[in-house]
Amino acid sequence: MKIPLKPENVFIAGLEVPTEQDTEIIQRLGIKTAGTSELINSTEPLKNGIKKSNIKHLAIHIDLDVLDPKAFRSLLFANPGSSYEFSAAGTMQIPQLLNLIKELSEETDVVGLGITEHMPWDSINLKNLLGEITILNG
């Protein structure tokens, strides 16, 4: 059975400064959004959207790049060797993201969770370092 995702049932939380391309798509499809600062004291915008759309089952997609790279370093923004200039770094803190997920779980049945944008720079750099040490590779 094919059930298409309706844009009016999509809510982007934590997106601070969308790119021009993102803005065009968001506006064209009528996708609801709220930045981190809008959600810092209340998750009501999200809860209201769930109630208004009568959403019973919810899939949550987390782009980790909504997180502040000073609080969570395994992000594209936090590459210790270069700068990143494509979009603004996230500002959400881990406790805020966790609270958001918990509150949404109280409003509806969470049936899916996806996590993307994980970039473990420290692990990559450690692997590369250890790969060059003779005693470890002989």
TrEMBL record:
Superkingdom of this entry's organism? Bacteria
CDD domains found in the cross-reference section: Arginase-like_1
Q: What InterPro entries does its record include?
A: Ureohydrolase_dom_sf
Can you say what this protein is called?
Arginase
